[in-house]
Amino acid sequence: MTAVGHARLRAGAAPRPGAAAHRRGRRLAPPKRGLLLLVCVGGALLLGGCAARGARGLRAVTAAELLDGLAARRTAVTSLRARARLRSGLSGLWTREALLVRRPDAVRIDVLSPFGLALAVGVQGALLWAYPPREATRYEGVASAANLTRFLGAPIEVPDVVDLLLGVPPARLPVGPPALSATREGEYRLTLPLAAGAQTIWFAGDTLAVRRAEETRDGAVALTVAFDDYRDGFPHLVDVGAGSGTGARLAYEAVEPNAPVDAALFAPPPAARVLPLEAAPSPEGQ
Are residues 134 and 175 in the same domain? Predict the structure, then answer.
């Protein structure tokens, strides 16, 4: 302590605050450059590390955990018996339907009218068939993407139809690591690079339920999907849109996940005439 400091103590005055620290400042304070580097490294770890935390209220999660959750949902629900309302086509009219779904490649949709069955459409493996009872004619052909697009209005394959009706986005095989980020709306955005484009899936930040998905192919939007009105973990509202502008909304009224569904129900019904699928009239409004 300096003579001035001793004199201040003898006079009853406290030493000036920070005097000693001022002398030792160079030894105690970390170098500014090192501090800046430490902050930058810490920030990089927080932003690009294993878990994305995003805005307040989001659950910490990784891309792998989100993908594992989707795979678990696909495994957990393998069949469905349901009644629903469908709105599609240019007319925008609602129709009532009864649906049967069974993984991996079986679907049956019965379009109902006040007088009974108006049209039945089914997929069983590689076979796609359509049966309007009043015509006593069955149309059948290959369950190709072109035929499914014609009848369903979206460029999807049979497994995609099964996934969508069971409440999950179509399964895709990424060609690179996924990218995960948090949005300002409190959602997680997961992007999977594909061979000819990308699939982006948005998850609710709190429940991690799938909210919507979008696929791009060759730089253009090819498919959009939205899921809403979750009850007991199953979405009761599904919106599907195609890059061409066509779309459909499916509103489930009653669902029975994992219902026992006989495989024979997906077989084409007997008919007096059997014609190729190309001879079938296009669905109304398509």
Answer: yes
CATH number at residue 89: 2.50.20.10
The Cα 204–Cα 212 span in angstroms is 9
**The residue to which tokens 């980020």 are assigned:** 181
Banded pLDDT at 27 (limits 50, 70, 90): very low
SS3 of residue 13 by DSSP: coil
109-136 average pLDDT score: 93
Whether residues 9 and 103 fall in one domain: no
Amino acid occupying residue 71: A
Look at residues 90, 85, 93 and name the one whose alpha carbon lies nearest to residue 250: 85
Mean pLDDT of the chain: 82
Q: Which residues pair with 255 in a beta bridge?
A: 82
Domain that holds residue 23: 3-48
Helix residue spans in the chain (DSSP H): 3-10, 19-28, 32-48, 63-76, 145-152, 158-165
192 and 273 fall within a common domain: yes
| Residue 11: CB atoms within 10 Å | 7
Mark whether 132 and 250 lie in a shared domain.
Answer: yes
Residue 191 shares a structural domain with residue 80: yes
Mean pLDDT over 138-149 rounds to 89
pTM of the model: 0.77
63: Cα within 13 Å, side-chain hemisphere: 16
Domain count of the fold of the chain: 2
Q: Which 8-state DSSP code applies to residue 195?
A: S
Q: Which residue has the tokens 């009532």?
A: 96
Query: Are 30 and 154 members of one domain?
Result: no
End-to-end CA distance of the chain: 93
pLDDT over 50 (residue 153) = yes
